[in-house]
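Exercise 7b. Backbone tokens:
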């Protein structure tokens, strides 16, 4: 520890607490306060951070707020301007990318659970249904994944045209569709089932196999392949 760090004494300032005790000793509000740096005339940075983390229906602290709150929500909080809002969302995006990168090494295209776990953190917090297309080569290795549509709170748009234009452009031989249900339920809707049938039929005509359609919920998933729905 250098001279400047020794001169600091732990108090209610989270940066000094971090230097003396390490990040694990800080609360989530204190960690967020280090990002925010300043509060308002009425609140210090930790109090502002606590307010951000409590911005939910039950008014309890939840670190997932940095993922769930969008820019518009954050800007409604007194003391949060565009710079602080962008900082918070940047941290949220970095956390998602870190979680995704750590799981990518174990990602297996032949294992629905592996695929679901890889995309879980990216999709389960989204307030709208998002459809991700996974494009694979003949050895079932991932060539590329691409968000091909974003729907409403309870409806995603399954367009065979958009799916196969993207698949053909990337010379994919096999495809897998992954999409989320913001409700948290993983039960396939009528639209999910009918849309999957249309995509499989179109793929059969084009020589591009639809291997699976995976629905992501809140820490759970449904695989059409595992459920026997992919060939119905």
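Sequence design result:
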């Amino acid at each position: 520890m250098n001279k400047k760090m020794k001169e600091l004494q732990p108090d209610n300032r989270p940066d000094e607490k971090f230097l003396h005790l390490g990040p694990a000793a800080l609360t989530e509000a204190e960690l967020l306060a280090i990002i925010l740096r300043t509060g308002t005339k009425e609140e210090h940075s930790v109090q502002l951070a606590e307010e951000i983390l409590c911005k939910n229906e039950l008014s309890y602290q939840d670190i997932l707020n940095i993922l769930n709150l969008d820019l518009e929500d954050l800007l409604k909080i007194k003391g949060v301007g565009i710079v602080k809002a962008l900082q918070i969302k940047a941290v949220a995006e970095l956390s998602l990318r870190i979680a995704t990168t750590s799981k990518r090494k174990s990602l297996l295209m032949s294992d629905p659970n592996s695929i679901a776990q890889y995309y879980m953190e990216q999709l389960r917090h989204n307030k709208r249904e998002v459809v991700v297309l996974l494009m694979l080569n003949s050895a079932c290795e991932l060539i590329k994944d691409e968000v091909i549509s974003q729907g409403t709170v309870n409806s995603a748009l399954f367009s065979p045209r958009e799916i196969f234009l993207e698949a053909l452009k990337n010379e994919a031989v096999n495809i897998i569709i992954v999409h989320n249900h913001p409700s948290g339920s993983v039960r396939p809707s009528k639209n999910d089932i009918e849309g999957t049938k249309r995509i499989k039929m179109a793929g059969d005509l084009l020589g591009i196999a639809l291997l699976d359609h995976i629905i992501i919920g809140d820490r759970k998933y449904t695989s059409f392949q595992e459920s026997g729905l992919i060939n119905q």
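Instructor comment: The longest helix spans residues 82-104. The radius of gyration is 22 Å.
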